[in-house]
Amino acid sequence: MIIPVRCFSCGSVIADRWQAWRNHIDAGMSLSDALDEVGLERYCCRRLFVSHVDLIEEVAPFTTAQQ
Ligand SMILES: [Zn+2]
């Protein structure tokens, strides 16, 4: 849904690199090169980016907050 703030395995902060990584992907860079570019070297952190499905925009309209 939303990228985890920290890696589940090693505890490293990873969420701050998400937007930069998305920008590299949108610019046509390969997944692996983009991960290297944002500094994610451990495979525990890399798997979170590669396997993440960004669904927050689709789930947000169903929030219980008053509008
Ligand atoms: Zn990690």
Which SSEs are present, and which pair or pack?
Blueprint lengths: L17 H9 L4 H7 L5 H9 L4 H4 L8
Helix pairs in contact: 1-2
Bound molecules: zinc ion (ZN).
The geometry reads as: globular
Q: Number of DSSP helices?
A: 4
As for the CATH topology, it is Arc Repressor Mutant, subunit A
Overall mean pLDDT stands at 91
Instruction: Output the CATH homologous superfamily.
Output: Homeodomain-like
Query: What is the count of distinct domains?
Result: 1
Q: Supply the CATH architecture.
A: Orthogonal Bundle
Q: What's the CATH class label?
A: Mainly Alpha
Structural class: mainly alpha
pLDDT < 50 stretches? none
Q: Radius of gyration, rounded?
A: 14 Å
Cofactors and ligands present? Answer: zinc ion
Number of strands: 0
Query: In which range does the helix fraction lie?
Result: 40-55%
* End-to-end Cα distance: 22 Å
Could you give the order of the helices and strands? HHHH
Largest sheet: none
> What is the percentage of strand-forming residues?
under 5%
Describe what this molecule looks like in 3D.
The protein has 67 residues and is mainly alpha-helical. The chain has a single domain, classed as Homeodomain-like (Arc Repressor Mutant, subunit A). The chain has helices at residues 18-26, 31-37, 43-51, 56-59. The mean pLDDT is 91.
Q: Would you kindly provide a brief summary of this structure?
A:
This protein has 67 residues and is an all-alpha fold. It has helices spanning 18-26, 31-37, 43-51, 56-59.
Task: Please describe the structure with a list of short key phrases separated by commas or semicolons.
binds zinc ion, mainly alpha, 43% helix, Arc Repressor Mutant, subunit A, 67 residues
